[in-house]
UniProtKB/TrEMBL annotation:
Molybdopterin oxidoreductase domain: residues covered: 132-624
Organism (species): Slackia heliotrinireducens (strain ATCC 29202 / DSM 20476 / NCTC 11029 / RHS 1)
Pfam families: Molybdopterin, Molydop_binding
PANTHER family named in the record: DIMETHYL SULFOXIDE REDUCTASE DMSA, TRIMETHYLAMINE-N-OXIDE REDUCTASE
An example Gene Ontology CC term for this record: outer membrane-bounded periplasmic space
Organism superkingdom: Bacteria
One GO molecular-function entry: electron transfer activity
Cited InterPro entries: Asp_de-COase-like_dom_sf (IPR009010), MoPterin_dinucl-bd_dom (IPR006657), Mopterin_OxRdtase (IPR006656), Prok_Mopterin_Oxidored (IPR050612), TAT_signal (IPR006311)
Lineage: Bacteria, Bacillati, Actinomycetota, Coriobacteriia, Eggerthellales
GO biological process: anaerobic respiration
Protein name according to UniProt: Anaerobic dehydrogenase, typically selenocysteine-containing
Coiled coil: none
Keywords: Metal-binding, Oxidoreductase, Signal
């Protein structure tokens, strides 16, 4: 049996999410059925103790008769998706019974419909389903005080329902006790929201950093000239209206059809329909590539740097033979370090990129023949790509960050940048390069055209107060062992300018507070090292504040259940006044968004369910409980905060000026009881906005005033608009990059200031016992962890709809499957030195042999019947990710270059994911209380 010892049979599991799927049976006279405990819904007249009532609906007549109304219910998928797509919910008598999307206007290229994806459409199951937290809970055998807390029972223990008064008293008391007795060095905080301000007031805390999102990419953004800070910063690709002006779009290591669903693929398809040709670089021919008729350039995951160095070699070779390949004027004007005639003044080596590529320094020209042995890309494909990247064509090189989440990728961003600059692909219509496929800014980069109103007072001046940050990939080992080595004090997951030599730190964590953060899953090897840390370490209290039952919640001691962004109460006569208090509504990188042109309504559409409270309510109560003045952290009320956030919102008008979006009447101000001035310079009434659900900025196909071209200002006038580098130009040779990486001393062989190849300490080459003879090692397959249509990180993994529709498979190539006698649907065991899992195989002809894949984000379900050899039944990819980091980057882990082996499982087949549920709490036992 798995570690979550609360089994749920199929009938009960599916029924637990029934209200979310109530529309599957239709809707008519929705009648509450009193006394049914596990329907998972409550109407607007629910009793104060949160008794659950099911709603039975027989057909669509209630919608036809207009018994309810459509309301815009925010999708709160996190930044791994992009979110903010328009999702409408049909609400009848306080219950959401249908999901819809934007269809209120004609779908045009100028003003597209802001379409929802399956994750957004299934959010009802987050609100009403089996994974929803309903009540404050305490672990049965945990007691406060640090004596009788039984850490060995975490993940196994039973739960007790407690009141909010008890929950705040327990949580606040433990926070204060541990700070008083052990100091801030004893506290681990994993959160992105307001809580850091409170814990900063108490003296600080430990946090950790990781490269879970951007990989190695952001480490050198500023030193190379790619930009990271400020707006538009990192995601500033040419925006969607310029995609069709490219002759070629080369996509690398990204799959927006799965990872950034909604509109991004539609934008790319419009370019395809206009004649743009596509190529895709990656280990599998994914659904995005297929939808765009892209040419597939196969590459083994984790070997992309070798590929791009060979592309550079071919561009040099072809330019010498035929000319018209390299844009020499562009290189000589805007870059430094390509050849010895254009070197930066701070260069310490008499070396340049071009001569390195030609083998002048190591007698090893970086030819396609050299590269193909490493990356597996056919020689002819490398030559073809070199031609496409030449100055002959308008080419965009758009990537996500999958290839940067690999060991050995420290030079990849510089290599890709160099090739793009060799062709002159920057600052011009139809030309660009950078992360144009990633999540919130997929296929629509550039400046936000809408901005939230006032919300800066929720952040503290110095939210990361610890003396150093724990490298995330080794974080759980550090907590368990009480020691770690730091290499940076930066909170940006490793900016090389902040790297330093190794510093040793002792660690004695007594309190772990997790807020809307599933670190027991998302930080490497949490399933084994994390479980060891929380069961065998010194942690006396674990507090989890969340919406859903996550892996982290299951191993906590106190659970504080929060409302979702659909829920709020604006009527003081009906209980605590709570705006939509879940701050995931404003989470994410506000530098860019694939829906950057819309402003979504953050407004309650239903009353708070069960016995949950808003994040703001919880934080205020905890602040009082620990003896901190609430006004020091929350200078305004919760409703005032959310009103300011919305009413103060602005948009960029046709004149490039920032203008208020909303007109606000005195009647509206009085309605919400807030301190605000009548506002008449907007373009839309605030109350009308709440009904419509979003505001959208108009775009134009011709002479659009908001058209954004990345690096255009620099290309037009490099003197007036220098880049972020020491020289103000793109640094193909970057002394700062090399010095930063080499400061850590992680590798005896210094990294070069230009993009050079080095053998990664994990990944394809390391999978061989003997590279020269190609003798395979114990773990000869390279695992990647693609973002999956079923989830956004671990969000939605408990959705019954998505679990039934989308199995969590283990992808394997047909030749590799045939060699092991495996077919689609077979249960396979996947393992390495860190752990093992069971999954069903999905055999593909569109995957490079030697490469396998396991979708990111599945809840783990640890079977410990053999304590010395536990196995995960849920298929969590993090079970296989160990603490090994890359050669030069202290926090860069091999999410997509993990080495594994696999075999056909000789035990009983595991059931389909739709037949089982993990990471849940059986709330039936509490519903009658």
């Amino acid at each position: 049996m798995g570690i979550i010892d609360h089994p749920m049979d199929r009938r009960k599991f599916l029924r637990a999410g029934a209200i979310a799927g109530v529309a599957a049976a239709g809707l008519a006279g929705c009648t509450p059925e009193a006394g049914t405990p596990d329907g998972g819904s409550t109407d607007s007249k629910s009793s104060a103790n949160g008794d659950v009532q099911a709603t039975v609906c027989e057909n669509d007549q209630a919608i036809i008769d207009g018994l309810g109304e459509w309301k815009c219910g925010l999708c709160w998928a996190n930044s791994s998706c992009g979110g903010y797509c328009v999702n409408y919910r049909y609400v009848v008598d306080g219950v959401v019974v249908r999901s819809g999307t934007d269809n209120g206007h004609e779908d045009t290229e100028e003003t597209p419909q802001w379409r929802a994806c399956p994750r957004g459409r299934s959010k009802s199951q987050n609100v009403y389903g089996a994974e929803r937290l309903r009540y404050p809970l305490k672990r049965k055998n945990w007691q406060p005080g640090g004596v009788d807390y039984h850490p060995e029972l975490r993940g196994k223990d039973e739960w007790e329902r407690i009141t909010w008064e008890e929950a705040i008293e327990l949580a606040g008391g433990e926070i204060k006790r541990i700070y008083d007795n052990f100091g801030p060095e004893s506290v681990l905080l994993t959160s992105y929201y307001v809580v850091p301000s409170l814990f900063g007031k108490l003296g600080g805390y430990w946090s950790w950093e990781d490269t879970v999102s951007y990989g190695s990419y952001t480490a050198t953004c500023e030193t190379l000239g790619l930009g990271y800070y400020g707006e538009p910063g990192l995601p500033a690709m040419n925006d969607r209206l310029d995609l069709k002006n490219a002759e070629y779009i080369v996509m690398a290591s990204g799959n927006p059809a799965w990872a950034a669903t909604g509109n991004p693929l539609y934008y790319l398809q419009l370019a395809r329909d206009n004649g743009t040709q596509f190529a895709y670089i990656g280990p599998s021919y994914n659904v995005s590539a297929s939808a765009l008729d892209a040419k597939w350039i196969p590459v083994r995951n984790g070997t992309d740097t070798a590929l791009w160095l060979a592309v550079a070699y071919e561009m040099i070779r072809m330019d010498e033979e035929t000319g018209d390949i390299i844009d020499w004027d562009f290189l000589n004007t805007y870059t430094l370090g390509f050849d010895m005639n254009h070197m930066p003044e701070d260069a310490k080596l008499e070396e340049c990129f071009k001569d390195y590529i030609l083998g002048e320094y190591d007698d090893l020209p970086k030819t396609p023949e050299w590269a193909t042995e490493i990356c597996g890309t056919p020689v002819e494909d490398i030559t073809w790509l070199a031609d496409v990247m030449s100055k002959k064509y308008k080419t965009m090189l758009l990537h996500s960050f999958a290839a940067f989440r690999t060991t050995g990728s420290e030079n990849l961003s510089q290599a890709m940048m160099t090739v793009a600059l060799m062709g002159g692909h920057a600052g011009k219509s139809g030309h660009c390069f950078g992360p144009g496929l990633y999540a919130q800014f997929a296929a629509n980069g550039g400046e936000h055209l809408v901005r939230f109103g006032k919300y800066d007072y929720i952040w503290s001046d110095d939210p990361f107060s610890a003396s150093a940050l724990i490298p995330g990939i080794k974080g759980w080992t550090a907590v368990a062992d009480g020691h770690f080595t730091s290499y940076s004090n930066s909170n940006l997951a490793g900016t090389t300018s902040d790297f330093h030599a190794a510093e040793e730190h002792d660690l004695d964590i007594r309190l772990w507070y997790s807020c809307a953060n599933n670190s027991l899953h998302t930080k490497g090897n949490g399933q084994l090292e994390g479980v060891r840390a929380v069961r065998e370490g010194n942690i006396e209290c674990i507090i989890a504040q969340d919406l859903l039952v996550t892996d982290t919640v299951m191993f906590s001691d106190i659970i504080l259940p929060a409302t979702t962004p659909w829920e709020g109460n604006l009527d003081p006569a009906e209980g605590d006044v709570m705006w939509v208090g879940n701050t995931t509504a404003i989470d994410g990188d506000l530098n860019g968004d694939h829906n950057k042109e819309i402003f979504p309504a953050i407004h309650p559409i239903i009353k708070p369910l069960f016995d949950t409270k808003s994040d703001g309510w919880i934080w205020r109560k905890l602040t009082e409980a620990v003896g901190v003045a609430v006004e020091d952290i929350f200078p305004v009320s919760e409703v005032q905060f959310w009103f300011d956030l919305t009413a103060d919102a602005t948009f960029c008008n046709e004149n490039g000026e920032w203008q208020h979006i909303f007109n606000v009447t005195q009647e509206t101000i009085d309605k919400y009881g807030v301190d605000y001035q009548v506002q008449t310079d907007g373009v839309m009434d605030l109350e009308e906005f709440f009904k419509q659900g979003y505001f959208s900025v108009d775009r134009k196909l011709e002479n659009d005033p908001h058209l954004f071209i990345k690096f255009k200002d620099f290309i037009d006038d490099p003197e007036a608009n220098p880049l972020t580098t020491a020289t103000g130009k793109f640094e193909i040779y970057s002394q700062s990059k090399a010095d930063g990486y080499n400061t850590t001393g992680l590798s005896e062989e210094p990294i070069k200031p230009y993009a050079n190849y080095f053998t990664p300490n994990n990944g394809y080459v390391a999978s061989f016992k003997n590279w020269e003879t190609k003798e395979p090692g114990d773990y000869p397959f390279v695992l990647s962890q693609p973002h999956y249509l079923r989830r956004a990180h671990t969000q939605n993994d408990g959705s019954t709809w998505l679990r039934e529709a989308l199995q969590n498979p283990f992808f394997v190539s047909r030749p590799d499957a045939d060699a092991k006698g495996i077919k689609t649907g077979d249960t396979v065991r996947v393992w390495n030195e860190y752990g093992q899992i069971l999954r069903q195989a999905s055999v593909l002809s569109s995957l490079v042999p030697g490469c396998v894949a396991l979708p990111h984000g599945a809840h783990f379900d640890l079977d410990e019947s053999d304590p010395d050899n536990p196995i995960d039944l849920g298929g969590s990819e993090a079970m296989l990710l160990g603490p090994k980091v890359s050669n030069y980057h202290y926090a860069l882990s091999g999410y997509n270059s993990t080495l594994v082996n696999f075999e056909k499982y000789d035990g009983d087949p595991i059931p389909h994911d739709g037949e089982r549920m993990v990471a849940h709490i059986d709330f039936d036992q509490f519903d009658a209380e």
